[in-house]
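ugh finaly. both done.
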Amino acid sequence: MGTTLRNKWTLERLLGAGGMAAVYVGVHRIGRRDALKILHPQAAKSKEICDRFEREAQAANRFRHPGAVEIRDIDVAEDGAPFLVMELLEGESLSERERRLGGVPLAEVLRFTAQVLDTLGAAHAQGIIHRDIKPANLFVVREDPESTPPPGVGPRIKVLDFGLARIRQDSSLQGELTRMGIVLGTTPYMPPEQAKGRDIDARADLFAIGATMFRLIAGRHVHEASTDFDLLLKMGKEPAPPLAQRAPRTPRDVCLVVDRALAFDRDQRYPDARHMLEDVRALLRGAPPPYASRFARAIDPDAITLHGQQAPTGPGEEAGPATVRASPASSPTVVDAIDVDWSEEPPASVDAVTTEWTGPASAKEDSIAVEWSEEPPDAGAPGSHPARR
């Protein structure tokens, strides 16, 4: 390509492009290679998008954690387009990994989830809520072939794209992007309060982690609909189905954790990333998740504990080794069932809401902006990934 920015960076090749920005391999004049994320000229005309772009850099650098992509600089090109200088990662997003492999093994899902929770716990401690956790924003780093990770650790995962992050106690960074009634995020991974444009806290990220686990284990989203508009309505009105209904051969302890993260009422979810991380680490050890198990017993004192048994099968099926469906195209991944406590919650009920679009509809995996009205509906109303080498 050969284009030069600020007399310092030479663009070597395009890595990928989205609706707002493109990512290139950039070579600094001292020889360092980084990823340069450059806003498209049209997007650069929007103050809101530019503010979001700058906030991505500020949020990522407000806390330092090996699980967050490093943003090293922000600058403006000669044509006025802002760009970020980021660490250059080699690997693939979790969504790309799922497509390439035809599914993600359950043990790997749990290991990745533990890493993401550790990263988000550090972000939450600094008052940063990501607001857009999804497989496309989780990057699996390809390790140096000469280095060998410790046994049982597996690949590292990095959390990307803090462009929608909400930073507590810093109104200068929130500005217009956090005004009441505007929905920012990716619909299939939104908690109901976010889908309705209401105030959120760190438990919104935990819901999104639960929705990501649900997607990877069951091979489908928590809710599905023919249009993004209808999907948003579902996310705001309907509780998540129990994971066992969509992936009935999943070990029950895993179901306990995912269902707790996906509780419709955020007061019924994990209170923070640390408690959920402790439960996921327990699953990795083959032990019952302490918080989810206690919560289940508090709701249902007669909750059953199974020892080494498979989750329920359909009528006429015989019990056998527990398996997990990881994606529509995958073969089941064999896992060992572990001790569990299980209970089912009655679904929460919520009032009907109406919606009014403030922007064009987008694909289900894209960020959207929607305004929710608190008025009851009429009777006839219808219900960039990181740089890669």
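ok and the 2nd:
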Amino acid sequence: ASDAFLTRYGAMRKGLQNRHAPKRRDLVGLLGSVANEKEAQHCRTLLKDFRVHVPKLEDARPHGGALIRATVRAGALSEALKLLSEHRELRFPPTLGSTMLLVRQLGVAGRVDDALAAHGILAEASPDDGRVWSVGFLETLTRALLKGGEFTRAAKLFASFREKGCTPTVHLYRLALGRSAEGCGEPDTSSDALAAVSVLEGGMKADSVKDDVCDRLAAQAREAAEAASQAAA
């Protein structure tokens, strides 16, 4: 941890131990300045000390958002996920923006289960917020699943987001069908990928999405699956 960070952290910690709450702006400033895992851990301690000064949970929204954002930017993804999972204990409501950043970076790192877990924590904490089931989250999670060849889970994810009122974009259908078509040509994933294509086509039909590119990709997927099954035979 840097000297400047430790000086500010030490002063705030001492103040809190003497029942003197820091100014909200100063706290958010320190949380948002985290540059590594150790500093993020110090800030977790700070939030624990600060809990008694949070009468209304909504007031603490900027705290968690600033700390998780900074922790993700510092590359400490496991620590950021831990902070998010402890949001009740640390008394802050998870924010959409910081959770999206974490989900995206976990997906890029190939940590699909952790990305889904982070989204699940947000969904549980914000049951009445439809934005949790946005196309942005669906696309980020779908990309991560398809990159890992997880066609069955990607299809289930699509279905569950649509049940929550999300309408996938044509761009997202193209992305998912394109990757599924590739999967249809690989013997190990062919049947799962073909089943995913059927789920995607069902979603398009229900959402009245008409797109020539999607139709072409679905046809390519079927041809690839047929060729893969003949090759396997």
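summary for the 2nd one i guess: The domain at 1-133 is CATH 1.25.40 (Serine Threonine Protein Phosphatase 5, Tetratricopeptide repeat).
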